[in-house]
Write a structure and sequence with these properties.
Elements (H helix, E strand, L loop, with lengths): L2 H6 L2 H15 L7 H18 L5 H12 L3 H6 L1 H19 L6 H8 L11 H20 L1 H6 L2 H4 L5 E5 L3 H11 L5 E5 L7 H10 L3 E5 L4 H4 L5 E4 L3 E2 L5 E4 L2 H10 L4 E4 L15 H4 L2 E2 L10 H4 L6 E2 L1 E4 L6 E4 L2 E3 L4 H8 L14 H8 L1
Helix pairs in contact: 2-3, 3-6, 3-8, 4-6, 4-18, 6-8
Length: 364
Amino acid sequence: MDSYLINKVPKETLVQLEEFSAYLKDHRKSKTSYESVIKTINILKELICASDWVTAGELIKIIKTYSKYLPLILSNETVVSNVIRRVLKIIREENEGPDATSFSEGLAIFFRSDSKSSTIGRKDLQDNILNSIVELLAEQENSKSNIITMALEHIHANELILTYGHSNTVREFLLHGRKKRNFRVVVCESGPSLIGHKMAKELSDGGIETTLIADSAAFAIIHAVNKVIIGTHTIMADGALRAPNGAHQLTLAAQHFSVPVIVCAALYKLSPTHLCSYDQDAFNKIIGPENMLNFSNTKLHSKVLASNPEFDYVPSELIELFITNTGGHAPSYLYRIVSELYHPHDNDLDNMCVEESDEETDKT
């Protein structure tokens, strides 16, 4: 740990930070994005309460210093970095207070990181921050229920819906629609993990007529499909997706036959970053090939270099609609949501430069 963090954070809290980092690094444990979000909010609450800070600038520096030790983790667990950005935005807003009401004052606040004239004390500022974090936590807890309640607006009787892989949000969305609509679902098995088998079984157990197909059969059947509904790992700022491997070919097939693609995802998956398919080192995650190759054939392995990417890049033009916990949004509208959720100074968490206004706030 950085000496600055050691001096500012008690040993007990440092241990909790290390345990949280170990939790994120452990890929043997299956964890949902929602679980990572809740754990991130709770560890940030502990960091805010236990660390030694006086001004908002000091608190921001503590949180950013800790995030510096998570670059490889945050590149894969984007929801964690998104939550950190949301909390940093909360700290800035609570430090500024409700005084700026005019348009010019609002612009000034947007382009500076902290209020230079804020005189609020630590106790009052901490209470305000924690109250806002409680609201943030409630927002995340209700995100899935807010999404699935919109199922009846988008699922109609006797439709044929195609989905890919496994998504808890999509599953609950479809099961909620089944309560008042009769429709059929086709599930692509999502090789090589074949996680679509689990999705098909859960939908079938919920009373939905479900058909499981190979990924290669999607193009042959998609002309008869009314809509495609999928989940995603990350939503980029421009509306592109970091989706499970194989989603790109599915959305291309949907575009060919003019079938609308709907993405169900909570806003904690919306990232202010922009990534491209050709930047695979930053964008993708290469996992082991054990689910593709039989390791008993050692002669073959010595001659083969196997790459098993976990994600696909799906351009925003292939997406028709995003269904989030705040409603349905077109990909072009996500820029505005990003500006509402995150402060521009926090888009790059790897940048450890302390803003000028932070330094002036610390000096005061």
